[in-house]
């Protein structure tokens, strides 16, 4: 049982008898001495001296000296490398403060200094919406016992987003100080998206709520906001400052509809990065209306119906010509049909309401007047979609090519057909086109694994792109753009063989799905396009093209700095490059012809919500841990610039005007022990015997 005297020096008690026995003996001896004292016997003091010496001998005290090696305390400097630190002179002040602080801490031999940065690990692709300084602190002191922590110093602009909800728990790591890198009384303007839907119906508008704020106070009653949708022509509106404003966004197409908003600069501005915002609304179609016109019943007709009816989002109108006008069999007219088919309503009145029109093995029979076919051609030129699946009739004089539709069809019939087995194959261009690229079963260096067809109409392309070929490399699937619309032509009516599983079947469902989506201008099926995809803080730029394009692209970041990206072609129509974003905001990607946007971070990222330098967020931490909050600008001048650092005791003040304290814990490890008895045996026996003899002699007088 040691008793500390001085640092490294203590007295250890090792009794020769158990404490209860020892206590009883000492108590009995003292009682005898007490009785002698009450009787005024001579030699009482000498007996008491002998008892005390004997008691000390039985307690067996020894002097213990420890050889101690001091353990260094640990101080952590947490450096804020978040994007808001790039504003003004903050980055330069941060670097100077780190250098000055590190240099001053070197003079403390009992202190280990660790530097943690929030930018470490940014390459992993995580989001950069917030500044997490306490995460960096926890990583830096993960292997350090709390008794060794001297404290921490945060060098930041004060916009910290992971401050603990219970700051008092930080008291055991020592004082937490904050050095603010910004300027006092900063001002800034920002635009925020208050409310925005994620999805909208194509052809309708969605309502957004935006807000412009001047911080700290109102600098002007209103501000001009520029709006640009999908990189188009800009428009300007004026909105009141400090109030929610509603804006309508028309959803013009499927996929991503991007609306950029940019507010004019105010008198006080720290950064223009938060003067811009972007909203991404995914356009979805409510109901796809498809008109299927079958010229005559055949085995493949059910394939089209099954494909279109399987999708609950498709409204299918199927028009089949079962009895051409020239057929005369004596059946009374009143028994041919219960309800007359609404040809005029479909092909004249409500034609523009359809998203896709399909002609399947259609030939002129006098059922659809030329005027209605002209209406369909105009419908395509204005932005509609037409798919023509050719049958035997396309090679005959009754071909659709000899109607007003011939002006928009991409392939002219030669009048011949091929009636022998052949294997449909994807062309070299088709392997770069999103409709046919990577079809299941297609192989580059070997024949595809799908089944054969047995009939094909011989056609000669007069425009468009041949993505599949059939017998003798004749065009089989041709895609073309006409005006604002699109046309696809399949020079065979035997895709149904794949759906029946003949010779293993084929990817008819995937091919027809892609074909329909390309015709209806779904963005993911665009063959010449530039797009950007965001995953965390990684931006993947992808350019689709039917021919290899060696051009690089220009990336413009939220601070309007530009860089060049070289895309790598993967031989499937895509050229890709990946870059790590350094800050949240809107990134613009351009190849000289097309422009796309990448929105990094949340719609209203906390990193840009308020970029003013402030100590308000860190104040509770400073109060709970005993730390202080100081402005770098206050200590960055004079003959000895930089904050002063002192080693302090835990019960003393840890911060003052122009200085900060780091706790001195005095922790150590014991490397050796030396033990020396305080009462040698010979001296004890001499004292006890001498005291007893003198007491006996005293009593004998």
Automatic annotation (TrEMBL):
Stretches with biased composition (Low complexity): 552-565
Bilayer-crossing regions: 16-38, 45-64, 678-696
Pfam families recorded: GATase1_like (PF07090)
Family annotation (InterPro entries): Class_I_gatase-like, GATase1-like
UniProt domain Putative glutamine amidotransferase: residue ranges: 372-498
Keyword entries, A-Z: Membrane, Transmembrane, Transmembrane helix
Region (Disordered) location: 544-566
Full protein name: Putative glutamine amidotransferase domain-containing protein
Organism per entry: Azospirillum humicireducens
């Amino acid at each position: 049982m040691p008793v500390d005297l001085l640092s490294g020096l203590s007295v250890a008690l090792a009794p020769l008898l158990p404490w209860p026995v020892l206590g009883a003996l000492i108590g009995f001896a003292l009682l005898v001495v007490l009785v002698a004292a009450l009787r005024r016997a001579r030699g009482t003091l000498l007996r008491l001296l002998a008892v005390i010496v004997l008691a000390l001998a039985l307690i067996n005290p020894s002097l213990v000296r420890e050889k101690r090696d001091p353990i260094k305390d640990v101080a952590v400097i947490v450096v804020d490398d978040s994007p808001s630190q790039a504003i003004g002179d903050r980055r330069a002040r941060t670097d100077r403060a780190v250098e000055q602080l590190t240099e001053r801490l070197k003079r403390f031999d009992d202190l280990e200094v660790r530097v943690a940065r929030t930018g470490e690990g940014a390459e992993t692709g995580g989001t950069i919406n917030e500044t997490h300084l306490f995460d960096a602190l926890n990583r830096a002191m993960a292997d350090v016992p709390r008794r060794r922590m001297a404290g921490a110093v945060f060098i930041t602009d004060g916009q910290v987003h992971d401050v603990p909800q219970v700051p008092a728990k930080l008291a055991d790591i020592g004082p937490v100080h904050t050095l603010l890198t910004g300027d006092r009384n900063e001002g800034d303007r920002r635009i925020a998206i208050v409310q925005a839907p994620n999805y909208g119906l194509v052809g309708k508008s969605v309502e957004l709520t935006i807000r412009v704020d001047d911080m700290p106070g109102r600098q002007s009653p209103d501000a001009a906001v520029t709006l640009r949708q999908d990189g188009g022509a800009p428009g300007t509106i004026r909105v009141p400052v400090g109030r929610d404003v509603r804006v309508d966004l028309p959803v013009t197409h499927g996929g991503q509809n991007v609306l950029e908003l940019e507010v004019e600069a105010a008198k006080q501005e720290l950064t223009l990065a938060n003067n811009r915002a972007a909203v991404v609304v995914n356009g979805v179609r409510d109901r796809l209306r498809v008109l299927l016109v079958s010229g005559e019943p055949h085995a493949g007709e059910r394939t089209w119906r099954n494909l279109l009816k399987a999708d609950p989002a498709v409204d299918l109108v199927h028009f089949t010509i079962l009895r051409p006008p020239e057929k005369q069999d004596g059946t009374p007219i009143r028994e041919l049909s219960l309800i007359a088919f609404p040809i005029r309503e479909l092909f004249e009145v409500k034609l523009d309401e359809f998203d896709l029109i399909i002609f399947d093995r259609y030939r002129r029979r006098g059922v659809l007047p030329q005027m209605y076919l002209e209406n369909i051609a105009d419908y395509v030129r204005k932005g509609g979609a037409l798919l023509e699946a050719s049958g035997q009739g396309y090679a005959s004089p009754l071909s659709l090519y000899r109607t007003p539709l011939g002006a928009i069809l991409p392939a002219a019939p030669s009048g011949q057909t091929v009636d022998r087995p052949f294997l449909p194959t994807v062309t070299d261009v088709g392997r770069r086109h999103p409709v046919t690229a990577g079809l299941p079963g297609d192989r580059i260096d070997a024949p595809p694994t799908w089944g054969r067809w047995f009939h094909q109409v011989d056609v000669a392309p007069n425009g468009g792109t041949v993505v599949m070929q059939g017998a003798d490399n004749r065009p089989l699937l041709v895609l073309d753009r006409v005006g604002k619309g699109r046309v696809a032509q399949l020079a065979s009516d035997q895709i149904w063989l794949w759906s029946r599983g003949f010779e293993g079947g084929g990817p008819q469902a995937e091919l027809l799905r892609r074909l329909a989506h390309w015709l209806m201008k779904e963005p993911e099926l665009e063959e010449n396009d530039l797009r950007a995809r965001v995953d965390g803080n990684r931006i993947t730029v992808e350019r689709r093209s039917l021919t290899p394009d060696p051009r690089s692209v220009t990336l413009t970041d939220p601070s309007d700095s530009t860089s060049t990206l070289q895309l790598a072609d993967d031989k499937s129509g895509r050229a890709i490059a990946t870059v790590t974003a350094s800050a949240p905001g809107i990134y613009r990607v351009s190849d000289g012809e097309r422009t796309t946007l990448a929105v990094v971070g949340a719609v209203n990222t906390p990193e840009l919500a308020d970029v003013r330098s402030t100590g308000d967020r860190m104040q509770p931490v400073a109060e709970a841990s005993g730390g202080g909050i100081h402005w770098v600008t206050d200590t960055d001048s004079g003959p000895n610039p930089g904050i002063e650092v002192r080693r302090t005791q835990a019960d003393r003040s840890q911060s003052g005007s122009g200085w900060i304290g780091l706790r001195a814990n005095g922790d150590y490890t014991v490397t050796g022990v030396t033990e020396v008895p305080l009462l040698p045996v010979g001296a004890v026996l001499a004292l006890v015997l001498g005291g007893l003899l003198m007491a006996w002699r005293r009593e004998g007088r």
